[in-house]
Design a protein that fits this description.
The structure is a homodimer of 413-residue chains. With 413 residues, chain A is an alpha/beta fold. The first copy, chain A, has 3 domains: 170 residues, Molybdenum Cofactor Biosythetic Enzyme, Chain A, CATH 3.40.980; 70 residues, Alpha-Beta Plaits (2-Layer Sandwich), CATH 3.30.70.2860; 160 residues, Maf protein (Alpha-Beta Complex). Helices cover 40% and strands 24% of the residues of chain A. Chain A contains 15 helices and 17 strands. In chain A, a hairpin with an 8-residue loop joins strand 6 and strand 7. Chain A is elongated and about 80 Å long. The two termini of chain A are 42 Å apart.
Chain lengths: 413, 413
């Protein structure tokens, strides 16, 4: 496998206040095409350290992608540092300079002299873009290593990767790409999923399998150079995991939920307690969700559960708010009040306070009401407040997906 | 300034599927104490590359913190790689081995032979922990460089940093720390805040000032070796920014909101449209929020706004859902239905669809009702669906904070 190293340049990335999203993006794009990412490095705007870094990584990689430090200010040192590290002079390119100048005059502004530095090209390099900003990238081949310089502004970088760098890499290394399959499983422990996956794929060789535990969801990825092998693995996994697969390909659980509701012409309303609005927020994060989402009620008190959702006061007094009966009453109440086809409910103890009275922290009950019946279940979820809430929201969404596919909750547990 | 380098170890961190949060945490902790972070590096589980990396960074730093690769499996190479890079043998420590064994037996399990590898100590190093897991860290001083090995599990790492590493660094380099002041400003454009800050601090020298734009909030940090200078800068900024400061120190806006409501014995209920539950979710992310949060209603349709919040049908027909009148009616409706002291509302067009009919994408109206009066305002927010929603949620929370401090919305705009 060809080795790749990613270098992000900028003081603002070092001290933890600005999060570098570019490198994650580049890593995903390149590793899914078969590049072996061996290093990720972040360096500040210091000439000597930057030049040392470039020469160090160039001795250990087939491809080096350097992002940031291509702007017009004196802090933008990437061009000069690469020039020093690889001993390749920079030359001002009159054509690019004119192009930048006309860009500024189109905006009714005059180009400052410092912007002309962006027209300095490494000896032997080609320009990449720019289509969106004023920072062109550069592509250089040096002693068998491809060195790519890209601007740090995410949308400029993405544009150049998609339109210039990835096609050119594909042309240089045809068929280097990996085929990748992805499945999303919900509401099941990771250890159990791991066993099912191992058993299903145990006779298949030359397949990379990886897991990523999201809260309440597990992403399974299978990759291989052989596209048919990936299809076969995905087929086996779907069969083995059955009901548990909530999404496939690049879809999110929220998108699948929306698609399944829309295709059946059904609407949904949500009653939440411990998740405080998170279920609604996730559902409405999908554009067009107003087609199937009627709304929600966050009933954080006994009184709200009783007055606004019609949960029986005696029941709340007797059994507290975290149990299947209350979850059912909340689901039925919100379904009726919003005039929705499906009513979903979540009620639990996210902690750190509030546990122990009747139910320990992490106990969450779920309800789902439709025209035929109302189902409910109770889980004990691990983790801190935030984890319990996110876990509960994922299970709630999965519960609706399972139900739409005709699976009873009891079968799913 | 003393130089520090952070190295994260693990294949799972390289390809962009698992986000490394440890390094951001370490960078914030160390840079706020005056350490100059010069490199951040991520390396996979490969002996040769890892050892080369360690020896490379040790030649360029006064402190190297290496996280991950301290587990019991064969993939956990950090101990061995550091041993090779610095030419320091590993020795099995019988005392630590016995301690790990008793940890397992307390859980009713037998320690596997591979776990004993976690008791291998670098020659000349001290143990750090473990208090939470089975992976002890190590502290080594080598040729004037401090090398710290920490486990990759975030809560184990945080525990060791707070209780062992930071105190020991402080003892070794007393007064190396920077004083840092932090203010959070909401609902105001970054450019405007920048101008106010520059003017307020223009006569002060030797102060590091930095901004971080969160969606709808701007974090301002001032840092200096001189603690009094930081206090003076914070005082000036509070005066210049006045009403706009929603939080100070390490508090979040949600925490301030909770504190201000609790201290006044007031309760809040929220009616949301485009934010879909995000406002409630943020409020209830704070432990103990049930003391002041009554609940919320997500009214995603005209019908829900009318039936469940009592918004006038004729008004919705005539003027649509995104205007001050509807926002006021929603705020009053939710206040009344939940029996809360304050009713807050958000109604807008987050896009990408739904704009243009009456209001363009990004238009959001806010309402706030209390016992005296109901206020409303309308904003035009930039960005995509997710950005508009997060921006709107921040403004809504800020609106409550401003009101509790006796500021009328009109003064705030």
């Amino acid at each position: 496998m060809k080795r790749c190293c990613l270098v992000a340049v900028g003081d603002e990335l070092l001290d933890g206040r600005v999060t570098d999203t570019n490198t994650d993006y580049l890593a995903r794009k390149l590793s899914s095409r078969g590049w072996d990412i061996v290093f990720r490095l972040t360096v500040g705007d210091r000439m000597e350290l930057l030049a040392e870094t470039v020469s160090w990584v160039c001795r250990r990689s087939d491809l080096v992608v350097i992002t940031g430090g291509l702007g017009p200010t004196e802090d933008d040192l990437t061009r000069e540092a690469v020039s020093r590290a690889l001993n390749r002079p920079l030359r001002r390119d009159g054509e690019m300079e004119a192009r930048l100048r006309s860009y500024f005059s189109a905006l009714g502004r005059e180009m400052s002299p410092s912007n002309a530095r962006q027209a300095d090209l490494l000896d032997g390099a080609d320009w990449i873009g720019p289509r969106l900003g004023t920072a062109p990238g550069q592509w250089l081949e040096h002693d068998g290593v491809i060195v790519v310089l890209l601007p740090g502004v995410p949308r400029e970088l993405t544009d150049m990767m998609e339109k210039d760098v990835l096609p050119r890499l594909e042309a240089r290394f045809p068929g280097a790409g990996l085929a990748v399959g992805r499945l999303l499983v919900a509401a099941r422990p990771e250890s159990e999923v791991g066993e099912v996956v191992s058993a299903a794929l145990k006779t298949m060789e030359g397949l990379q399998v990886s897991y990523r535990a999201l809260t309440g969801q597990i992403e399974i990825r299978v990759a291989s150079r052989d596209e048919e092998k990936v299809s076969e693995a995905v087929r086996r996994l779907r069969e083995a995991l059955g009901l548990w697969v909530v999404a496939q390909g690049e879809e999110s659980m929220e998108e699948v939920l929306g698609r399944e509701l829309r295709s059946r012409g059904l609407t949904l309303a949500v009653a939440e307690s411990c998740t405080g609005g998170m279920v609604g927020e996730r559902i409405t994060g999908v554009p067009g969700s107003s087609d199937y989402f009627r709304g929600g009620l966050v009933a954080y008190t006994y009184e709200a559960k009783e007055r606004l959702l019609g949960v029986d006061r005696g029941l709340l007094r007797r059994k507290g708010a975290v149990n299947e009966e209350v979850a059912k009453a909340m689901a039925e109440g919100v379904r009726e009040r919003f005039g929705a086809d499906l009513g979903l409910s979540v009620t639990g103890v996210a902690g750190p306070g509030g546990g122990g009275e009747r139910e320990p922290v992490g106990t969450v009950a779920f309800g789902l009401a439709d025209v035929e019946e109302t189902l409910a279940m109770k889980y004990r979820l691990p983790g801190d407040r935030d984890t319990v809430r996110r876990f509960a929201a994922s299970i709630a969404l999965a519960m609706v997906i399972f139900r739409l596919r005709g699976v009873r909750v009891e079968e799913v547990r």
